[in-house]
Amino acid sequence: MSGPATIRIALVDDHALFVRGLELLLPTTSNGRIQVAGTTSDAATAAALVRGCLPDLALVDLHMPAPGGVRAIMAIRRTSPGLRILAMSGIDDTDTAVAALRAGAEGYLPKSSEPEDLLPPLLAALEGWSVLPMDLLAAVVAPARTGRPVAAILDDQERALLRLIAQGSGTLQIADTLHISERSVKRLTAALLRKLRVSSRAEAAALAGSAGLL
């Protein structure tokens, strides 16, 4: 009987010692389950790295030399739309973290995390969940709290769609569940994000959790 599948990680980070540490420690602390498939210290080559090593998930440092981590996330999202992306930073910078979520990251991890503590959030991200520290979650949902409650502005279909997004369901799974076409899912999702005044599924998921819709 085979064990759990290996998780291939791409690292986009210009801190050589941090990268080397993860290369050594992630396989050890995960009993070989996590392997670093490729690394780059240049944000401009992040998308090319991902295309070349075909990882399951990319970890991107936000505070890198130009073009920077947020633009690296945008480039990866354009060229590898199905890849899960987590932003990381050693600096407490909520604005940049929120920008990373809006650029397409599914979550955020502080670099202060111990290697052995990284496996649960990495697995959660791969399963479709958004991974956010509580202070960042509060920053994401705060703008919506000034308006009407989320549940009050959504109809039944929109609430069902939001729950599925928050659960990490993909477009095809949502289409099957709601008995609509994949094209309709994409159209309805875009309309839902506009209605919630957010720019990513991660932010929508955070709102769903804050509103008690899960």
From TrEMBL:
InterPro entries: CheY-like_superfamily, NreC/VraR/RcsB-like_REC, Sig_transdc_resp-reg_C-effctor, Sig_transdc_resp-reg_receiver, Tscrpt_reg_LuxR_C, WalR-like
Keyword Transport attributed: no
Domain Response regulatory: 8-126
SMART domains in UniProt: HTH_LUXR (SM00421), REC (SM00448)
4-aspartylphosphate, modified sites: 61
Superkingdom per UniProt: Bacteria
Pfam families assigned to the protein according to its UniProt record, in alphabetical order: GerE, Response_reg
Keywords from the UniProt entry: DNA-binding, Phosphoprotein
Keyword Nucleotide-binding on entry: no
CDD domains: LuxR_C_like, REC_NarL-like
Domain HTH luxR-type intervals: 147-212
UniProt xrefs under PANTHER family: TRANSCRIPTIONAL REGULATORY PROTEIN YDFI, TWO-COMPONENT RESPONSE REGULATOR
Protein name in UniProt: Response regulator transcription factor
Organism: Polymorphospora lycopeni
